[in-house]
Amino acid sequence: MSNYHIKTFEEYFHIYRKSVREPENFWEEVAEEHFVWRKRWDNVLRWDFSKPEIAWFEGAQLNITENCLDRHLRTRGDKTAILFEPNNPNEPAQHITYTELYERVCKMANVLKAKGIKKGDRVCIYLPMIPELSVALLACARIGAIHSVVFAGFSSTALSTRINDSSCKMVITSDGSYRGNKSIDLKGIVDEALEQCPTVESVLVVNRVGSSIHMEQGRDEWIQPLLDAAQPHCEPEVMEAEDPLFILYTSGSTGKPKGMVHTTAGYMVFIAYTFKNIFQYREPDIFWCTADIGWITGHSYIVYGPLLNGATSVLFEGVPSYPDFGRFWEIVEKHSITHFYTAPTAIRALAKEDLNYVEKYNLSSLKVLGSVGEPINEEAWHWYNDHVGKKKSPIVDTWWQTETGGILISPIPYVTPTKPTYATLPLPGIQPALMDENGQEIKGNQVDGRLCVKFPWPSMARTIWGDHERYRTTYFTAFEGKYFTGDGALRDEVGYYRITGRVDDVIIVSGHNLGTAPIEDAINEHPAVAESAIVGFPHDVKGNALYGFVMLKDVGEVRDRDNLRKEINQQISDRIGPIAKLDKIQFVEGLPKTRSGKIMRRILRKIAGNETENLGDTSTLLDPEVVQQIIKDRL
Ligand code: 6R9
């Protein structure tokens, strides 16, 4: 029996048990059956979480793009690989076949090579959701360059920090981008960022909006003429299994973003396997993940997962509210989408609008619905199930992280009975553990604790770019011998997992992970600010919104507080991006601190969420008076 496609619940348990008993045999079988290798591995797995060192399929040689493109040409050359749906509904959709995609990737790979990009070089990609974005990732992978995609909603400072952290040699961007009825001057943001980026030698610019932009002599070039002149074939670079494939930055609880490094063979095997099983993908299904490729969800389940399986993957440039709140459903009907994968924040935003926006469209093509990015609340789950899935399409609530590369806990549709708000069961090969505060594993059911993983899986990040020690301390020291996720979870009476949220200083706003530290740093840079602390509080649509407690240097000096609030938010917008703006800013005379000087965010969180009745243990507070004053002035 093939291990690859799980079809019944019994089969799931059978495969799961095998994957725990003999993980190496399990993954070896998956790797043998479904990929093109230039050379077979010598060793399936070598690992030591104390260092931490993790290596899968060592000795193997391959190129992931051969698996995404070349091998499909004979059997699926004319099949649509990317179905591009533009921001403007009147602009025609584009069906890019596997053959066309292969040629476009090869051409771009040849352009990168001609610009001096070699195996191991880092290329920053700062593009909107247009086909060139997928092409750029694959072109890098084709020649062994390491792509570092930066979400095109990040500010110039956030962009330059990421470019510098991994010393990128090149940036691929566009003149501008469309989002709803707005267009954004992406190239202007890049120009500003590059004032601080000495390692960038060249910038390739895609023409998307036709705006007139500054082109820096000797540095910037329009990409289209170069592509037109390039050869449509490019020999794939032969990569070692553990050669880095990409870097993707994620927020941490300290200031600097963490460049998570994913490597080639393990990532490929796990992403292909999870795509196929978690979505029960079968030809000729049409798969749509609404995430941005700037996040891990887009990397794994818009680009690599679908292409590794020869699927049709929808790439949507726009937003769910343009030209109106029916846009998602209009697209589902128009392209007979079978799989729809989105985030709870989008579901909540659409659920607030008139039901007619959903009911107007024929959604009968849908077979599987997915959710990712944050816990899905009961109300949103039911709205999704009732009005989008019409109670016929199972919802897969998929839990995972940038660090995990692919989905670790999720129902398998038509196999695992779903339960609202539960991500349910681990995928084969994944061994979760709940830990108590003393570092002991909590066995049995009906328990809750901190979520760890006990055994390596192929697509886990291998390090943080340039800072392996930070990788070790962030993920492998809280619980000895285990990978710590930063999330809390509970396990119900049948062993189903429910993720309850972050237990560290990361706040998820509209599905975006925001570290408290970088936002506080941005606030503190304002000349009037002495110190600040931010926390999340519940919000109907965003899941969490941000509440800032800000202490000023000289209270007497400040005349216009509303203006100051605007300036603080502008500062955050400039440093990080508009997604990190605060919903509420309360000026305080002091912050609650422990005797060792740590801000007690736990207390601030309760105040922001209006749960001031029970503040918990306040005995370690240096000055309890401060807390009473903050409660009194609460917004
Ligand atoms: C894929 C992605 C990771 C954090 C993760 C957790 C939260 C993601 C979730 C979920 C509950 C789910 N998260 N999926 N929480 N249920 N189905 O989102 O990666 O951006 O790195 O975020 O998102 O807190 O630790 P990333």
UniProtKB/TrEMBL annotation:
Residues 70-462 form the AMP-dependent synthetase/ligase domain. Its EC number is 6.2.1.1. Gene3D superfamilies: 3.30.300.30, N-terminal domain of ligase-like. Keywords: Acetylation, ATP-binding, Ligase, Nucleotide-binding. The keyword Calcium does not apply. Residues 12-68 form the Acetyl-coenzyme A synthetase N-terminal domain. Belongs to the ATP-dependent AMP-binding enzyme family. This is Acetate--CoA ligase. The lineage of its organism: Bacteria, Pseudomonadati, Bacteroidota, Flavobacteriia, Flavobacteriales.
